[in-house]
Amino acid sequence: MKLALPIAAFALFAAACSGETAPATPTPAPVAEAPAPEPAPMAAKDIVDTAVGAGQFTTLVAAVQAAGLESTLRGAGPFTVFAPTDAAFAALPAGTVEDLLKPENKAKLTAILTYHVLPAEVMSSAVAGQTLEPATVQGATVKVDGSMAGKVMVNDATVVSADVDASNGVIHVIDKVIMPPM
Hints:
- Helix content is 30%, strand content 19%.
- The protein is of the alpha+beta class.
- It has a domain at 47-123 and 159-174: FAS1 domain (Roll).
- It has a seven-stranded mixed beta sheet.
- A hairpin with a 2-residue loop joins strand 4 (144-148) and strand 5.
- Helix 3 packs across helix 7.
C-alpha cells in the first residue's frame, strides 16, 4: 500500500509526459469570491475641521475658538459661512485682531463672527443672477450680490472661492472681514 501512491503518481506523470491523457479527475467548481468590500466613504468634515484643513483660516479658527463658537459651528447646522482668509484679517488696521481676541471683547468678536454666518446652507447657484439680503446669525442682514457675471459680493467683500462643502453646511471664502452695522 505504501508503494501504491508513489506508483500511481509516477504513472500519471509518465502519462502526462508521453502525451497520453490521464484519467479525468473532477475539478472543483470555482468558488465565487465575495467582492472586496467598498471602502467606507470618508465622512465630510464639519465647518471648523474644513477651515482648519484648508490652512488659510488660522485667524478665523482662533477667533471662533476665542468667541466660544467652535461647538456651534461643529453642530448639526446647516450653516453658510462667509470665511475671511488670514490675508483678510491681516488687512484690518494694526492691532484690531489682537484687540478682538481679548476676553473683554468677546461680545464684539462674537457679533462680528456671527455676522459672517447664515443659519441655512446657501450654495452659490442659489444667488446666481440676483441680489439677496439674508439675515445672519448675528441678526443683521448682509447684501449678497450675484448679479455680476462671474463675481459674487457679500457687502464689500468678494467671494474668491465658493461652495466649499462641509458636513454641516458650506463655506464661501471672502477677501475681507465684513463688519456688522453698529
